Each structure stands twice: as C-alpha cells, then as structure tokens.
Amino acid sequence: MDHFGTFKAGDLTAVIGDNSSSGKHRAGYNGVWSLVHKKEPENLFVPEVAGLNFEHIFDGDKRDDGDSGKIFFEPRNAPMTFETLSDTSAELHQKATPTFHLESWTRFDLVAPHYIDMTFRCKPTQHAFSFGYIGLFWASYINAPEDKSIYFRGLDQWRQLCTQEHYDESTVRHRDDKLELKFSEKYREALFKNLSRLRFDEPYFYGLFKKQIFIVMFDRTAGVRFSHSPSGGGENKEQQTTLPAWDFQWILPTFEVLKEYSFKARAVYRERCSRAEAGNEFKKWREELKKEGEKKDE
User: Fold this and answer.
1) Whether 160 contacts 140, CB under 8 Å
2) SS3 (DSSP) at 216
3) Taking the CB of residue 209, how many other CB atoms lie within 10 A of it?
4) Torsion (CA) 67, 105, 112, 43 in degrees, nearest 10
5) CA 95 – CA 86 distance, rounded (Å)
6) Does the predicted TM-score (pTM) go above 0.85?
7) Residue 68: what pLDDT?
8) Dihedral angle at the C-alpha atoms of 43, 46, 50, 53, nearest 10 degrees?
9) Nearest to 16 by CA among 44, 46, 43, 51
C-alpha cells in the first residue's frame, strides 16, 4: 500500500501523503509533505513535517492524561490512508477516530499553473463533542522564511500578524465572528484558545518565502479562523531561527450526527506578486466557484 505520491502540474511539484513516516519525513504529519516551484527548488515546508496538515480535532473538553498527545493530535495518530486519484489528484481518508469518532476525507488537486485545491469533507458519527461544537485545525510548517508574518485584509486595510511567542494572541477571527468557544477549566494551552485583537475581512491570507508568495484562500468566512505561531515548526539551528506555522481552523458551531460537512480551500504558490494581484487571485477563484455552483443548479 502506498502512503504518498509525487504530483506535478504547471510550475508545481508536490509530494502528498498520509500520516506515515518515510525517510526523513516524520510520522504523524499528513497533507502536502513537500511543495516546490520550478523557480524555487527548496521545499516551502519544513522537510520533516508538512503543510496543509490536519492537526487537531477539538471540543474544548477532551484532553490527554500526561503528555501523550494522542487526543490533542488525534488526526496525526489515528490511522489514515492515501489514494492516488489521477496524475494530479490524491485523497487522504481517516476512518472514525477513537476519541471524537469523526470520519474525514481530504482531497488535493494540483491545477496549473500554480494552485493546490483542497476539499475537506467530514462526518461526525457520534455525539462525542462535549460542548456541542466541532473544532478542526490545519498547520503549515514553513521552512525558515526571513519574514515569519502572515498578511490579510482587515478593516479595509492590509494587516500583518507575527505573534511574539507561541500561544500569544495567535488566532484571528472574521469581523462578524461572534462565536465564543467554551473550554473546560483544565484544558491545555493551544493556538486556537488565544485570540488576536485583529480581525479579517476576506477569507484569505498570504506569507512570503524567498522570492515566492504562498496564499491560502477559503470558499467562505463562516467558521474560518487564521492562526499563527513564530516557532510551531521548531527551529533551524544552522540558520539560527525558528520555523513559523501559518495555520487555519474551521469551526462547526453545531452539527448533526451522520451528516456530511465540507469546505474548499485553494493554496497559491507562485513568484512574488503585488498585493493587488494576490487579491485578484482570490477574486478569480471565487468567481470560478460561483460559476461551478451555478452549473450544478442548472
């Protein structure tokens, strides 16, 4: 059984895999193991780990006894399978997990010239979420960029977030997001617990890597949150710097058992462009999604 594969489209070459280990790639990290652009041969993501990595399922209550991390990092630890769908597409499947009983499918499609489309679907199979909401979290560990920040639109201006420490005002909500997540008294520290005073207007952000730009865009604002850590990927001793995490969340405030839920995201990895062009990438994609939706309704 294969656990990963290499896919190419346009300017991009990506290794997509499940949460198995292989060579220097560490067990637990899934999604895009490697992402390379034809103009930049170095992996955007920390080579031992991954990007667009399904990291946490959380309900604000269930937690590990000790430091095992099997509940906190359940998507890392629960069995996951990899399937090649085509020369440019793959899907990861995780059966209902041991603690939260959530089944999920993550499909990645490489699209020329410089896109990775991600479609996530999940199905709660039991009433296993203590406070009634489902929290889901993805991490992208970036390979020692000079600028650790993420940038996004907020209050009709460009905003910059580079948190000073791990867990420090790490999560940005949409300007209309009024949901206050409940956490039990002894719940551990987490990026998703600590809120920034900043808010975003449009559901996309970008970061800079060498002469490239990495943009992550979403098909909705509802439930989407951005998260940042200056050191989530550990450290690069040779370059004497920490490895940031450019992360996101999707929150379902309520759910029905055995009902499927889904969202779409698009990652853009291209040579650096203006902020106006980054915004155009987002607008163009949202128009594509709108047309697709109209065709389905015909």
Assistant:
1) no
2) strand
3) 23
4) 20
5) 22
6) yes
7) 87
8) -120
9) 51
At 1 the pLDDT is 85
How many residues are present in the chain?
298
Q: What averages of pLDDT result for each successive group of 10 residues across the chain (298 residues)?
A: 96 98 97 98 98 98 90 98 98 98 98 98 98 98 98 97 98 98 96 98 98 98 98 96 98 98 98 98 97 82
- Residue pair 28/19 in contact by the 8 Å Cβ criterion: yes
Where is 245: in which H helix or E strand? strand 245-252
Q: What is the pLDDT of residue 167?
A: 97
The encoded tokens of residue 75 equal 């998507």
If phi over 0 gives left and psi between -120 and 50 gives alpha, with beta otherwise, what is residue 202?
Answer: beta
Distance, in Å, from the CA atom of 278 to the CA atom of 267, rounded to the nearest integer, reads 11
Output the six-digit token pair for 215. Answer: 């943009």
Q: What are phi and psi of 207, to 5 degrees?
A: -135, 165
